[in-house]
Design a protein that fits this description.
The complex is a heterodimer of chains A (143) and B (114). With 143 residues, chain A is of the alpha+beta class. Chain A contains three helices and five strands. In chain B, a hairpin with a 2-residue loop joins strand 1 and strand 2. In chain B, helix 1 runs parallel beside helix 2. The chains are: A alpha+beta (143), B alpha/beta (114).
Chain lengths: 143, 114
């Protein structure tokens, strides 16, 4: 399943509604659906907020594929490359220490890393591709 | 961003009249909250019963409001939807805020049983 969104927050918001409906039609529900919604919101908002900030509107392509209980997600955009060309690490100290508990930002990548597995980033021909897997735990496989 | 404040004897309840606190609305939420919490009593209960989605920007905005209220006032949360609860739990922010089942229980009122 492919979707094309425009790189602004409003379009991402509408895109997330469409994605939720698609996932529901694939019988993804409960905690799996919550995690998928949080994950996709963080990934797509990052594209708008960082990769595409201050750039003319461009397209974001989202690809979703359910294989068994694994939801494969790929997001392709035409924005700037990730800093240093690699995935940001979740900032250390987000959990546990008093000072970190009062941070106003930096939760996005912590959520992405917590929810997704097999995170992979590549930059080819001026495009970013971020791919990841969400392991669904509530899908009952036939047989 | 639609927010309404209702004063009670020992707390002010601020009700969020939006279904999402997300990247598109986080700044408006923070600005409106800043106006509302200006000179309120020490305890504020943020009623999230109508909010069915929050992302890291919305979470950051709530943390920012808590910080601007200072250490002598307290921001508490009520009526978290499953997804809001999940975001707070995954980021461990559920251990930072007092979280109530509903705004009524936060005010010490008995739950209505239908």
């Amino acid at each position: 399943m492919q979707l094309c969104l425009c790189s602004n927050f409003e379009d991402v918001r509408q895109g997330l509604h469409r994605i939720t409906e698609i996932l529901k039609s694939w019988d993804i529900g409960g905690d799996d659906l919550l995690r998928a919604e949080i994950l996709l919101a963080e990934v797509l908002n990052n594209v708008v907020e960082h990769a595409c900030a201050d750039l003319p509107p461009s397209e974001i392509d989202v690809s979703l594929e359910l294989r068994g209980t694994d939801l494969h997600i790929s997001v392709n955009d035409r924005g700037r490359a990730m800093p240093e060309g690699k995935l940001p690490v979740a900032q250390p100290g987000l959990r546990g220490s008093d000072c970190a508990q009062f941070r106003e930002g930096g939760y996005g990548w912590a959520l992405i890393r917590d929810i997704a597995s097999d995170l992979h980033y590549s930059r080819v021909s001026g495009r970013n591709t971020l791919s990841m897997t969400l392991q669904c735990t509530e899908i009952v496989m036939p047989g | 961003m639609h927010l309404t404040a209702e004063p009670h004897p020992d707390a002010t309840v601020i009700t969020v009249g939006e279904t999402r606190i997300d990247a598109a609305g986080a700044i408006a939420f923070k600005d409106r909250m800043r106006d509302l919490v200006g000179d309120t009593p020490p305890r504020i209960i943020l009623d999230l019963a109508g909010v069915d989605f929050i992302d890291s920007s919305g979470l950051g905005a709530i943390v920012a409001v808590m910080k601007l209220m200072g250490s002598d006032r307290k921001l508490e949360l009520a009526a978290l939807s499953p997804i809001v609860q999940k975001v707070f739990r995954l980021t461990r922010m559920d251990s930072v805020f007092s979280i109530h089942e509903t705004a009524d229980t936060a005010l010490g009122r008995p739950r209505l049983v239908s």
